[in-house]
Write a structure and sequence with these properties.
By secondary structure, this protein is of the alpha/beta class. It contains seven helices and nine strands.
Length: 235
């Protein structure tokens, strides 16, 4: 997650999902905050905010809040009022500032701090800038590893509780359906999946859902179907 994305259409869907799931839960968010980049137009997809008659009814309070975010202060912290009482861990993953030989140890410490911060939460959300990746050691010394969430961190964050993990679909061979099925297999825990093509293909893996979470997820997908939000149907 980067500050410059705050309030874009992806946030609307993301926060809408969390708001649908969080009643009666203690929500914690690990933002996987990454320094703002300027080499692309990501974060500019805010045209939905000009269409309140089309999208405002989905979550009027959230829609109004994100309008204010985009007009005034596009930062991760500006999103927090939309998630009342959530625990937020937003320490930066600026690995480029860490010597390459120290990045593995530094990242391990960062994740331990995230786990400690969210240990009181029974529903957690992780928002890596890009996607879930495997645990190959070769990537861990690279500065852009801060944009990814290795599978080991997925397992640790979800242990003993429900976790929602954001994944930006890639160009993996076989297409997006096969990619989602691959990660369901790798997660190796009960998982349901929400997908949406909001300007780009986005996936939310909901791990260890109880019956209440399953019901609320289905209701969310039905309500937000106009934005092509849907449950993934596996093989």
């Amino acid at each position: 997650m980067q500050d410059r994305y705050a309030g874009d259409v992806g946030d609307f869907v993301k926060l809408g999902l969390l708001r649908a799931l969080m009643p009666g839960r203690r929500l914690g968010v690990a933002w996987y905050r990454y320094p703002d980049e300027v080499h692309n137009s990501d974060g500019r997809h805010i045209g939905y905010l000009d269409l309140p008659e089309k999208y405002g009814h989905l979550d009027p309070e959230l829609f109004a809040h994100l309008r204010g975010v985009v007009r005034k202060d596009r930062t991760i912290s500006s999103l927090l009022p939309a998630l009342p009482h959530a625990v937020s861990f937003d320490e930066s993953l600026a690995l480029a500032n860490v010597p390459s030989r120290q990045r593995r140890e530094w990242r391990a410490g960062w994740f331990e701090r995230a786990l400690t911060s969210l240990e009181c939460c029974d529903l957690v959300f992780a928002d890596p800038d890009n996607s879930i990746v495997d645990d190959a050691d070769k990537r861990k010394g690279v500065a852009t590893f801060g944009k990814q969430m290795p599978l080991a961190e997925v397992h640790a964050l979800a242990e003993g509780r429900c976790a929602v993990i954001y994944h930006h679909n890639t160009r993996r061979a076989g297409g997006h359906d096969a990619e989602v099925d691959h990660w369901i297999d790798q997660i190796e825990m009960p998982t349901i999946v929400v997908r949406t093509p909001a300007y780009s293909p986005r996936t939310f893996f909901i791990i260890n859902p109880d019956q209440g979470i399953r019901v609320r997820t289905g209701e969310f997908c039905a309500r937000w179907s106009g934005m092509k939000v849907r449950l993934h149907q596996g093989p």
